[in-house]
Amino acid sequence: MHIIDRIYIDGAFVEPHGDQWAPLFNPATEEQIGTVRLADTHDADRAVAAAKRAFPAFSSTPKEERIDMLHRLHAAVAARGNDLIDAMREEYGAPSNFIDFSAPRAGNVFLDMAKTLESYDFRRRIGTAEVEMRPSGVAVAITPWNSNYGFICGKLSAAIAAGATMVIKPSEMSAIQTRVITECLHVAGLPEGVFNIVTGDGAVVGSALTAHRDVSKITFTGSTATGRTIVRTAAETMKRVTMELGGKSPSIILDDADLDVAVPQVLAAGFLNSGQACIAGTRILAPESRFKEIEARLREAVKDFKVGDPKDKGVRIGPMVSQKQWDRVQSYIRLGQEEGASLLAGGEGRPEGLSRGWFVRPTIFTGVNNDMRIAREEIFGPVLSLIPYRDEEEAIRIANDTDYGLQAQVFSSDITRARHVADRVEAGRVILNAAPHEPLAPFGGFKQSGFGREFGVFGLEAFLETRAVLG
Questions:
Q1: What range(s) does the Aldehyde dehydrogenase domain occupy (predicted)?
Q2: What is the pTM of this model?
């Protein structure tokens, strides 16, 4: 049984002032595996005070010193790769294909930001003015449960590079993972107070941090509904905000696409992280001229997506994070049928042979129109909607007919045509023919998927303020 009874403030593991405890579960077994003592508003104040004290000295450190810190952070995280894998598998139930990307990436984001920082010029001349980029101050990062240490490291790497100090509030549902990554970060030996990690309830600690008068920057990854609340609170003191929110991403299969490439990739994108991903490609747009063929291909290909115990390397879809999330996904599967869509694969209940664990059958609806709720609302589970379109114009219209705009995919045997379509898709990131990940490219959304960007130079500048000196 894991007992998590420490938070991290001012360079040390300390006892929280808060006295509330929350249970931790293994979602593959539904068994309680630990408890976490939650921080409170007093702890939030302590963490911000530590970051504020550290800011004057840290913001003045030379670029070379911060690059060295980033390399030390990478080394410390990389050294605990197996522990990070074990913690994510036990506490979150992510399948191996997701963990095998997430664990090394948590350390690599520090190297990516070090590379960005090496060539970044904090001072430049514009006409007769000297323009300088200055660290924004004390930043708050609020991170979700679906990629715990990846979000923590990604946001912290940008703050360190910029010279900003940070308070991180991770999800209380990820306390085991948080403990491991905090131990890693501590080993890197950064100055006291540069980063602080307080696990607590969003309504208590999250609210206290986003309203705190000594916080100048907020970076948040999570639901659009929570993002709206944070933005309203931040507006009271004009805090700078980066919001990475929900998505309902389209995967557009053009009529000339190679289905041997497209079909496995649209399913991989839709079922990414067991469907618990803001970037998941949950709307598959298929041309009417090849619709039956694509239906048949999807029906067959989905059989390759094994559901079960994440310890099994062959499993591609793990459990939902909680009973609450399982119930939510089941309600949407029922809703889809009530709305008149047909099940091409999957359906309600657990997959055959799984009597416990919050597992969902990988589900594909066909006969979906874009006005249905299953096509418009973020489900956050392995539930996909197959939507027909007549021609390229309609495909683009359907793709853009959403409140969201985080990511999209386009598949075509003609790369020029794929780029033409991508140019008209309203999304912060568009992937052509399953192109590989580019860690230095900006990431963020259009519309209600948020604003601001993370990673690379754009992520660095999200923690900087611009000042001009004339004369």
A1: 14-469
A2: 0.97
